[in-house]
Design goal:
The protein is built from 9 helices and 14 strands. By secondary structure, the protein is an alpha/beta fold. It folds into 2 domains: 141 residues, NAD(P)-binding Rossmann-like Domain (Rossmann fold), CATH 3.40.50; 165 residues, Lactate dehydrogenase/glycoside hydrolase, family 4, C-terminal (L-2-Hydroxyisocaproate Dehydrogenase, Chain A, domain 2, Alpha-Beta Complex), CATH 3.90.110.
């Protein structure tokens, strides 16, 4: 399938700029628009990107401070919101960013009513749920970046521990993009072999007593980066571009994006499990084999998100 006609990125800060850069390199849309209330910033980022278009085969990049720049977009990626500071959890941002979505989304829907909406703003699961409530669109057209980046961090860490290529590691983070996220270790594989049975080329292996430490290292990765440089932006730019590619090219790729679902004993939330992603957004949810401990962990993660939603959102 051909590229999208138009992709809009809302928020021209470091994350929005990284997403625009990554999607431009990947030629995911004929036209990329950057929208930010700081219009000169959006214009400057777009101008900077446009100066490199000859190196990626052309296209068009533009930006501004009027929501009209997003008109007719096929995919709208929302990054705008309060930033995570050292010591903050993603859920600390809930109140401020839920309020922003309430103000911003109706205007976006006016100019891009047929778009798929992809939210990156944290806490992404809470923001995505509220956005779907406001938009009233089918669940699959309002999705969050979820644990796509967390899963990439997990695979990179396991690959380094074992001395194998990251592309050969098949493991996933599910649940909340945040403190309550879980890793279904029972289904983690390396080249078709269960993770705990793998011995790398240098004799290295992952032991069962390391699993909690590895999950914690993945969960806390953002805080380490924020402490060192003030924000995370590069990997989330690439992760979001990966989701956008699945939409743009109608890949039917299985990705752990966040989408609304009902969790038994908890109710409706947005969280990440394996979902099939294509041009229309999330097309279907894939079944995932979980042992009893993992099922309980996913339920606790959903309950943590539901508690935040109950505190910050009511219709």
């Amino acid at each position: 399938m051909s590229a999208l006609e138009k992709l809009a990125v809302v928020g021209a800060g470091s994350v929005g700029a990284a997403i625009a850069y990554a999607t431009t390199i990947d030629r995911l849309a004929d036209e990329i628009a950057l929208y930010d209330i700081d219009g000169p910033r959006a214009q400057a980022e777009a101008l900077d990107l446009s100066h490199g278009l000859q190196f990626v085969g052309g296209g068009r990049v533009h930006g501004g401070g009027d929501v009209e720049v997003c008109r007719g977009a096929d995919l709208v990626v929302v990054t705008a919101g309060a930033a995570q500071r050292p010591g903050d959890s993603r859920l600390d941002l809930a109140g401020a960013n839920v309020g922003l979505v309430q103000r911003l989304l109706p205007a976006l829907l006016q100019v891009a009513p047929d778009a798929v909406y992809l939210f990156v703003t944290n806490p992404v699961d809470v923001v995505t749920y509220v956005a779907q409530e406001i938009a009233g669109l089918p669940h699959g057209r309002v999705i969050g970046s979820g644990t796509v980046l967390d899963s990439s961090r997990l695979r990179q860490l396991l690959a380094e521990r074992l001395g194998v290529s990251v592309t050969s590691v098949h493991a996933m983070v599910i649940g909340e993009h945040g403190d309550s996220e879980i890793v279904p270790w029972s289904s983690a594989m390396v080249g078709g072999t269960p993770l705990l049975d793998v011995i790398g080329p240098d004799g290295r292996r992952v032991r069962r007593d390391e699993l909690d430490t590895i999950r914690t290292e993945v969960r806390d990765a953002a805080q380490r980066i924020i402490a060192g440089k003030g924000n995370t932006n590069l990997a989330i730019g690439l992760a979001t571009a990966r989701i956008a590619r699945a939409v743009s090219r109608d890949e039917h790729a299985v990705l752990p994006v966040s989408v609304r679902m009902t969790i038994e004993g908890v109710g409706d939330v947005c969280l990440s499990v394996p979902n099939v992603v294509g041009r229309a957004g999330v097309l279907t949810t894939m079944p995932i084999a979980l042992d009893e401990e993992e099922r309980d962990g996913l339920r606790r993660s959903a309950a943590a998100l539901r508690a935040v939603l109950d505190a910050v959102w009511s219709r």
